[in-house]
Batch of 2 targets.
Target 1
Amino acid sequence: MSSQVSAHLVGKHLTPTTTWLAEFISSQRPTTPVPALKQTALFRLLTSDITKTLNKSRESVFPADILNGELKERRLAGPIPVQMIGIEDVGQSKWNQIEAIEAAERGETTKGREIVRVVPGDEDLSNPTTSKGGPHKLLVQDACGARVYAFEVADVEGISTSMSIGVKMVLTDILVARGVLLLKPGSASLLGGKIESLDKAWKESQKAELKSAVETVQT
């Protein structure tokens, strides 16, 4: 049972620590069907802090000198699982970003020109949002805790400011230019997920920072 769950997670490029896997298996009922165990395990990892739940290997984390700005360009083969801990739509004004945050607080999102109200609890963490905007600048973190900025140089399906903080993605064959990850289709795949505490704290601080920036410009 444990090996089947592990294989399912590894297939998503999420390799849990032996401690996490053992604790997860021991917390489940022995009669739980394996397919249900696999889905539950994936959901738990997607909503966890990967710095505490994933194994660290040389291939699955950023190199120690990832932020070296003297290196003009290099490519990382990966796959490297990361979690997003910050995002900005650099194609939108700060005021528009504030309005988007406030709409999300009201439980509203947009689908084309239509405003759609989202019922709490209806979010599907395994399927990232498809609303766009951008280009976007993200701050991502690997399993070792290294934080690196990533810039969307071409539209990547699922990336938008309505994503939850803590969402997981996998980076493969990604180009790094002077310490910045360059995101494009094929180099970044979203898995979904969320870290509730980080998501709430980030949205509160981001709104305050954007308002402060707008007020500074106006004065």
Target 2
Amino acid sequence: MSKAILANKEVMNLILTSIIGNYAKGLYMPRTCEWIDGNRADMIYSPIMPPSNSLPPIIIEAQNVVDELFMHRLQKYCNHVYKTFDNIKPIALTICVKSIREVFTKDYYDTEKGEFFKQLPCQYWAQQHLILTPSTIANHLHEPLHPMVALGYVFTEQQCSLLGLEYRDDPTVKLLYAIAKQTVDHEIRTHDATIDVFMDVCNQTKTQFERIIEAINEDGPSSTRAMDYARAGLVYMSTCLYKYRQQSSSTSATALPSPPDLPNGVIPTAGRQAVEVLQQIKSQKKNMKWM
């Protein structure tokens, strides 16, 4: 959910205004980034113009607990960004959701970008490393909330509903929850559609098993009809598996179109090979009588 909020353009511009200045609005685009070594940043704001010290890349991480492992990982991310963006050191923003180890709080120093921010040393891998924590925003929780305080507040409170928040009427808090709601609604619709598809598959499979049982009851254990139903069910499930695997692994550029339907009158029985179907079509052509 945090990534969806950070990817929103309104939120991005709020962050850019606080970190860089008003002139940066509209000059960046959000992007996720994964590198060849498997490292993946939560969010990167990439300048649409050639990067520079005045328009550097921004890397944002939402982290439950800021500890030494996280700091090493963040440094790796920044090194990757430095190489990707023409050797321009990024600005790093960490939103600490729960706690930060005391060893790092001893290194805090202030920044002109806001009293609710603290800064940590990052001399060789970032222009600045700004951090928001529950404690850094605690003295700034009065309405109207500064947009960055509101962002830190929503991330650290982690309430499912606005009703659980003391500052639920703040405009930025409302905006952030509206963005979260849109994301959740989309995910729910996708989830429901997926359930509908698999319910249909289950119903079709259930019906096929019922046909097999009925055929065995009527024709006996060696029923040819039951075997045909079983083979048809196997083909159906194989087709489903193939289709869903293709959808999850293929892009529109590599995926093949669905095969065309067979001509009317050609109905292969379960278990027959494609060559048999083609032979049937061929023989039908030979026997055609022209008027």
